[in-house]
Amino acid sequence: MLEAQELACLKGDRLLFRGLSMSLDVSGMLRVAGPNGVGKTSLLRILCGLTMPEYGMVRWHGEDIRRDRERYHRALLYLGHAPALNDLLTPLENLRFACASGGEDPGAEACRAALVRIGLGGQLDLPARVLSQGQRRRVGLARLFLSAARPCWILDEPFTALDVAAVADLTATLEAHCEAGGTVILTTHQDAPFTRAPRVLDLSGVAC
Amino acid sequence: MLGPFLAVLQRDLTLAWRGRADVLVTLAFFVIVVCLFPFGVGAETNQLRAIAPGVLWVAALLSTLLSLHRLFAQDHADGTLEQLLLSPEPTALWVLAKVLAHWIVTGLPLVIAAPGLALLFDVEQGALGVLVLSLALGSPILALLGAVGAALTLGLRSGGVLLALLVLPLFVPVLIFGAGAVDSHLGGTGATAHLLLLGGGLLGAIAMTPFACAAALRIAME
User: Fold this and answer.
1) Which of the listed residues B5, B7, B40, B121 has the most CB atoms within 10 Å of its CB?
2) What number is the ipTM of this complex?
3) What global pTM score does this model have?
């Protein structure tokens, strides 16, 4: 489904990695591993199409993602380092906007239910600036419950700042998504309780 | 397809309402700059009458510039811009919504305040309509051109100064035809030609700048 060929990534004057090829099939989960600064986030951004690789290309269903951006982005959900929250809006408004900007409208009720499920039932009407780091993280992650229709999930450090119960729930959600035929690519430094250990792509192997 | 357009428009207007103090700064700046001129050039009525269109237009232009750097900065910092660029809908569409919301919040108040300020300069009542019309057509062009500059300087150190250097020269034609419309009305030649040129410029800017802005934002994300 998603494959990358001979990717090279240049950051400033420094070559982070080169000759990186990978492919991910239906129901595949991939964990990108490696020490800080090896280029994990850069790789995820290249796979999303936010950054151009210095060399190589990314294909979605055999088609270069740059050629058919809209089709790929309709199938993609990317949650990056920054949680995309505006401090002046409530979690509900933030979540609804995030869905609408992605071209979907699940409705206020579904958004509310997703936020309650992720444990923000008591904070629905508070501005996001009073939320803790973990709660801010959760608002972003609530989109996962609303985006089951998007097959390709790319998550940058989804477990950061979450408590144990939330990590377990999130892990279960990711595995359920893979079983339903989706693909997940994630980075994490934490040990998550996966029932089936995901494939690991270690970037230190291709780092320059 | 209109989903992201309306969502961005509604969100930006909500945000502007919740952070109204920021918005009032632009209007206050406009009023203060205009009010400074009589102190500087003296209160001779004929002189004030003559410089009024130019003063109002230059003040509107500087006020627009004052708020431009905020157009994408917050969304860039909190990651919203990333998500918007990953939207499957055309980028130019929501960029246009952002600029429209920005103009409603910062440009429209200037258009509304301008006739009141023009009275301070004893501008002939018949010319007020032309002044309002020229600002209503011209200030959205400023916002659209400025948005391209804001996107190009996004995330740069001293981006604000660079933005001014980048877009002020582009504002010159708008200033010439905008202030010229009022002058030619007062001179008796009629403002139609100037206003038509401004209208044409506005349509051209609506058609082209969102695409330039979208391309610049993608580069800024790299």
Assistant:
1) B7
2) 0.91
3) 0.91
